Amino acid sequence: MDMQNVQLGTHGTRPEDVLAVARGNAHITVDPSALAAVERSRQVIDALAAKPEPVYGVSTGFGALAVRHISPELRAQLQRSLVRSHAAGMGPAVEREVVRALMFLRLKTLASGHTGVRPVVVETLAALLNAGITPVVHEYGSLGCSGDLAPLAHCAQVLMGEGEAAGPDGTVRPAAELLAEHGIAPVELREKEGLALINGTDGMLGMLVMACADLAGLFTAADITAALTLEALLGTDKVLAEELQAIRPHPGQAASAENMRKVLAGSGLTGHHQDDAPRVQDAYSVRCAPQVAGAGRDTLAHAVLIAGRELAAAVDNPVVLPGDEPGQGRVESNGNFHGAPVGYVLDFLAIAAADLASIAERRTDRLLDKNRSHGLPPFLADDPGVDSGLMIAQYTQAALVSEMKRLAVPASVDSIPSSAMQEDHVSMGWSAARKLRTAIDALGKVVAIELFAAARALEIRTTGTQLEPGPAATAVLRALREADVPGPGRDRFLAPDLTAAEAFVRTGALVRITEEVTGPLH
Asked: Model pTM?
């Protein structure tokens, strides 16, 4: 991937910038106007710090300890202590892309001019990202309120030259060594800066942005596999007609139906449901594919809307509201750090993903059942009885779907009080994001198994007959075989074949090959 450049200003960022930094190691620059805004907000903090009246986050303790006024000589220690004590995560390290997204989104808020940090903090955090230094952030420690506190604190600790981080080669080393190696001076935090570095919903938002991108590809892939299954089952494409979608005007449904129509164009298999074993209608899992996938698409569109709003936000507490003159302005406490808006859509996406997987599994099972597959051999086996065919592939798919149903249980309704009841309602958005990532990984596998089964069924169906699949299906079958995903035959070690099919889906090859025939899909 070519090195991309991402510039941060005062007005937030875009989903594609988050992806470029998190997954593509894009180089970050901070617009001079943003640094000027950062300096103006810092002047407000300096002015307030010089006054005798206590100001939360500037000259007080934190959370339930905010009642204590901190004298000037202890304020640097206050910030260090805040970061060290909050870097309390446990469990396995989370993925590099998650940490990079988290750091970039915290940098986005710092550059907004509403947090009161000095420009050096912004510049140093950008330098860490550009150097490929990735703090070790642990699975557990965020309740999704007052921000993703522990994950962000582990990042802030590295900014101070403490803790552990992975270098560009992935090796975990002391942060002080990595900073020195890259010529980055640790930051001595001053008033407000420790709090500004840890008080944001950046981890859950970063995972939401990546989840939206991943699900967009998987929804398209699932439309393709649904169409291939319909073809293999000799189903009718009449239910996909544009005028039928128009009388129930959900945009996601219309998009999925159009995708399926494009994939099925020119097929010699569709419409044969009235031949040997007449069917008035196809089963729900086939006939209602656009309705289910379409509802998921509309859910995704809502999540993208929420993510866009969050990407334009400056999430911190307290926030700096600069005045018209240098040093003028005020610091206001607020509740914008609460992760409910993000947590809800993360949970909503997990529900949509689980249902998409559920209907895909039902279609796969139909392909394997000789009583419902309209002439296909049991389990698509070469010699049923001697060969088991794809029997256990469906077991694996069913296990994945069952796990996804468990992961669809909302995290955002499970508030648990913290900080001596000062923080008595939390979002659990980090937990919602973590389980969604697991669900998306499972969905990719489920879609891949349907693809594997549908492709085998199509080849079995057309061998020795005059029936021909459509041009899109033909192109997919050819590309699968070129990608070492085998066709029908005697039983063989199946796990590597399913893994190859999963790679074909998750790398975007399925969509890309299909679009070479159909043109752009939704």
From this structure: 0.96
